[in-house]
Amino acid sequence: MKRVILFGTVVLLILGLSAGSVQAVHTMSWGFQLINNPNARQVALNVANAQEQLLEETDEQTGLERFQESLERMVMSKAIRDIVYYDPESGAPGYGFIPLEDGWIYYAWDEATQTMRIFHYSDGGWTEISIDAGSQPAPPSWP
Asked: Would 137 be classed as within a structural domain?
C-alpha cells in the first residue's frame, strides 16, 4: 500500500512539474513572439501616438471651423481633378488659381508642349512644376 501511495505521489509530482514547465514555455514563447514582432510594435506605437494626440486636442472645433475646413478640402479636391483629368478637347478652361495657407497655386494647360504647368507662389516668388501628359503606352495583352 505504501508503494502505491509513493508511486502515485511521484507520478503526480512528475505530471505537475511537466505541466507547469509546458505552461511556462508557452507563456515565454508567446511573450517573445509579441516583443520581436515588428507589426505588434507598430500597432502599439500607433495606439500610443493616438492616445497622446487625444490628450493634446482638448479644445473642440466649432461647427463653423469644421465647415471652413470642409470647403477648403473640396476646393483642393476639385482643383486636383481639374489638373489631373484635364481634357484639352473638352472646351473647359485649362487654368485656375487655388488659395493655400502659405501662398497660391496657379495651373495652366500649355497647348504648345501639351503639358499642364503648375506654379506655386510663396514668399514673393513662383516655383514651377510641369506634368507631361506624354504618349500613353499600349495596354497589356492577355494570352
From this structure: no
141 belongs to a structural domain: no
Q: Is residue 18 part of a domain?
A: yes
What lies within 8 Å, CB to CB, of 115 at 6+ separation is 109, 130, 131, 132, 133
pLDDT score for 87: 82
Query: pLDDT grade, residue 9 (50/70/90)?
Result: confident
Give the residue from 56, 85, 102 where a domain finishes: 56
Host domain of residue 47: 2-56
Q: What is the pTM of this model?
A: 0.43
Residue 102 and residue 49 share a domain: no
Q: What amino acid occupies position 10? A: V
Burial class (CB in 10 A: 0-12, 13-18, 19+), 96: middle
Residue 94: strand, helix, or coil:
coil
Q: Which residues, in sequence order, are CB contacts of 75 under 8 Å at separation 6+?
A: 98, 99
Q: Can you tell me the distance from the alpha carbon of 56 to that of 48, in angstroms, rounded to the nearest whole number?
A: 13
